[in-house]
């Protein structure tokens, strides 16, 4: 009977197996034993935060480990920021902190109002352009927004000279009476507005003599802007929503407009009214899919059911039929009904 292995192969295996055993034994002895409990303790130590947290202004480019721990960062978060900085990264604006891999969004939002970027690190610092070394920013003190000067805004490091001058021109032209109007100014970023908010003293808005409230469905942008609580951005949002809606049936529908805050809503309601006769209606039996889909009260799934049923049936005579055919719920139909008209299904109505 022939041998399965030659003598040479048997000798090679006999030499290899002891060597392999020795190698495996050496690896087991050299490898440190796993200690899950020690690893958990080390991880927990990195997550411990100091009991006493003192929020104060700081520059992420120069803050020390102790400074960061006192601000409420865990050791892991503080070390991550320091490593990020050691890698050559520079925080030019407060939002750069959100790019640091160890800083969560919630932590950044908590710290953002307290971030002060030094002139040495800020984007386009003035001393680089002029060659002059400027002093460190002053600590902000409460100030009136209607009388603050360009010099003061520059001194606290809030705005550059050009930005501050543009801001003063905007203020003198439009007036600034609350945070929403402050943020409307194009040179004021969200981070700057948030940092200044604790120090700003707004003037009292002078009451505008109004003989009659503003009619919401016929008012142009100038009339809407004259309403206290409606800023330039909100004017555009109201006009766009009014066009999609076909007009406001009730003044309370203004709360549906993006940009109308709860605080301003109550103030605006006292200065406006709606003429429901001014609303524009849609002929549900003949309107195009594009016209129907643009209305904010017709959801996409309702539109699909409506178009399919209209193709089969031809049209409807009342909103109640839409409910009976399960195209809309009673609540949806009640909200939309004032904007509908039902043309004769025997032929297209005049456009």
TrEMBL record:
Q: Name one GO molecular function term.
A: DNA binding
UniProt xrefs under SUPFAM superfamilies: RuvA domain 2-like
Domain of life of the native organism: Bacteria
Looking at the keywords, is Transcription present? no
Query: Keyword annotations for this protein?
Result: Membrane, Transmembrane, Transmembrane helix
List GO BP terms, alphabetically: DNA repair; protein secretion by the type II secretion system
Q: Which protein is depicted?
A: Competence protein ComEA helix-hairpin-helix repeat region
* Organism the protein comes from: Alistipes timonensis JC136
Q: Name one GO cellular component term.
A: type II protein secretion system complex
TM region(s), chain numbering: 12-30
Name all Helix-hairpin-helix DNA-binding motif class domain ranges: 222-241, 252-271
């Amino acid at each position: 009977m022939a041998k399965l292995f030659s003598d040479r192969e048997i000798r090679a295996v006999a030499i290899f197996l002891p060597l392999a055993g020795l190698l495996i034994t050496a690896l087991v002895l050299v490898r440190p034993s796993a200690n899950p409990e020690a690893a958990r303790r080390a991880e927990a130590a990195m997550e411990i935060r100091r009991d006493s947290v003192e929020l104060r202004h700081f520059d992420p480019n120069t803050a020390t480990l102790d400074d960061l721990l006192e601000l409420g960062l865990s050791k892991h978060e503080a070390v991550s920021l320091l490593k990020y900085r050691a890698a050559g990264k520079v925080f030019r604006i407060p939002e750069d902190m959100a790019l640091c891999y160890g800083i969560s969004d919630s932590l950044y939002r908590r710290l953002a109002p307290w971030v002060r970027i030094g002139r040495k690190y800020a984007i386009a610092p003035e001393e680089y352009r002029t060659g002059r070394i400027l002093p460190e920013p002053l600590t902000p003190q409460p100030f009136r927004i209607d009388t603050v000067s360009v010099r003061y805004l520059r001194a606290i490091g809030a705005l550059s000279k050009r930005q501050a001058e543009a801001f003063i021109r905007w203020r003198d032209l439009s007036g600034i009476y609350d945070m929403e109007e402050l943020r409307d100014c194009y040179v004021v970023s969200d981070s700057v507005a948030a940092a200044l908010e604790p120090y700003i003293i707004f003037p009292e808005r002078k009451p505008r003599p109004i003989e009659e409230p503003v009619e919401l469905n016929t008012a142009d942008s100038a009339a809407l802007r004259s309403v206290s609580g409606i800023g330039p951005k909100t004017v555009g949002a109201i006009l766009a929503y009014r066009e999609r809606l076909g007009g406001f049936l009730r003044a309370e529908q203004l709360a549906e407009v993006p940009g109308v805050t709860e605080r301003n809503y109550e103030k605006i309601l006292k200065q406006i009214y709606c003429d429901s006769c001014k609303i524009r209606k849609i002929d549900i039996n003949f309107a195009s899919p594009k016209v129907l889909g643009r209305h904010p009260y017709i959801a996409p799934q309702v539109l699909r059911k409506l178009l399919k049923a209209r193709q089969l049936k031809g049209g409807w005579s009342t909103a109640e039929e839409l409910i009976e055919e399960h195209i809309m719920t009673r609540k949806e139909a009640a909200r939309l009904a004032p904007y509908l008209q039902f043309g004769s299904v025997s032929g297209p109505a005049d456009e």
